[in-house]
Amino acid sequence: MRIEENRERILYGPIGRTLLWLGLPLMVVQLVNVSYNIVDTYWLSRYSEIAYAVPRQVMSTFMLWNSIAQGLMAANLALITQLIGARRYDEARKYVSFFVSATLLINSVASIIYFILRPMVFSYIVKTPPLLYNDTLTYSGIITLDIVFSAFTLTYSTILQSIGDTRTPALINFGAASMNMVLDPIFILGVGIDGSMLIPPMGVAGAAYATILSRFIGLLLLYDRLNKKYPYLKPRLTLKIEWEWLAKNLRIGAPVSLMMASNSLAFMFQNGLINQFGEYVAAAAAIGLIMMDLADATLWGFTSSVAVMVGQALGAGLIGRARKVAFKSMLYIGVSTLIGSSIVYMLKEAFISVFTDNQVILSEADRFITVFLPSIVFFALFFIGMSVGRGSGHTMVPTIMGIIRLWGIRILLGYILAFTIGLGSLGVWIAMSLSNVVAGLLMIIWVARGGWAIPVIKTREPATV
């Protein structure tokens, strides 16, 4: 059986090679996603001098409404990987159905609430600059549908990754992101022949439509491949969800949802700090954050592999294996992120100039990248620790660290440095960098102590199919 083959490779294969086997497809997808963000920003920069800052205004608010889905994903990644590691496939199939059913119900309601409340959010929390406000409302109104589509994409990707199949979601997400890149210039700038417009230019609305359409196509493909490739785990919608599953999801997923909601609010307030310095600083931050996405693109794919390997090892009772995965992952991914950051630093000036020739934006983006980039390697270590927590099901300590990282250092210290001490936007950039350094160092200590190396499923004689 394919599930059994993946399990054996994850549990007994060489750690470095298995990390590559699981993580490379996801890394490629992340690079494509980052490339999509670059293309999105590029075409919006051709449409307007500042319109490319709009998606970044919306991104943090989007995280808040997807926080419950993130908690469900973290909890079920731990549960399903550990059940598969223990060869309890019948329970894994049942949990898959509960997972999909809960995602549909929760995110459908969340999308309606988001659509209604978004004007207040952008007016009073994010404090979007006046010149960006109308475009931000337009973009966020269309992208509301993605609260459902992206949650289901994460759900089906998580199920496949729990099995050890990272290639299927990687290939499909690669195709969806590529489709998005093709649609972007068509929808943003329009298409005309002989002076007549076949597709009118839609600006930020076009960017949103391209995202929604490509995500929906990718979701249909994920649904089809899971049902055909792993029919044994085919989910069935149900409202008869067991209390035991709900209790486990609350215990494991609630801290992650809390952290994601807290992160989202913190990012909104961070945007509020940045936006107080005007549209040009907001635009510079948008460019700089894309550079950061490139630097840590290697990180995101491999962190999912760490969670899968840790979860299956703990489910199989291989505690020593789980510890080795955690330690070696920190070493491998930390070094690779350092290399990626160094390459990005060397290319920063050429990259920034692709999006703007405004000297104020150029100077501010360069300063942001110079201050923030050295902290990326510590963010990588922090994120590996988060993955260890998610794979093991012990998410509370990483959640507390994440809240301190954003609220205690990034927001509070950022406000003090920017406004009390008077460093301006530089104070915000310094606080952002320090938040990553402190969180990364704390996470190394937590992983080394090893209190997370305990399964969250009941251990009993495993069953086979």
TrEMBL record:
Keyword Transport included in the entry's annotation: yes
Membrane-topology descriptor: Multi-pass membrane protein
InterPro entries with a match to the protein in the record: MATE_fam (IPR002528), MdtK-like (IPR048279), Membrane_Transporter-Flippase (IPR052031)
CDD domains on file: MATE_like_12
Keyword Transmembrane helix in annotation: yes
Subcellular location as annotated: Cell membrane
Cellular component annotations (GO), alphabetically ordered: plasma membrane
One MF annotation (Gene Ontology) recorded for this entry: antiporter activity
Residue ranges crossing the lipid bilayer per the database entry: 20-39, 62-84, 96-117, 137-159, 171-193, 199-223, 273-292, 298-319, 331-348, 368-388, 409-431, 437-457
Organism domain of life: Archaea
Keyword tags: Cell membrane, Membrane, Transmembrane, Transmembrane helix, Transport
PANTHER family named among the record's database cross-references: MULTIDRUG RESISTANCE PROTEIN NORM-RELATED (PTHR43549:SF2), MULTIDRUG RESISTANCE PROTEIN YPNP-RELATED (PTHR43549)
Name of this protein: MATE efflux family protein
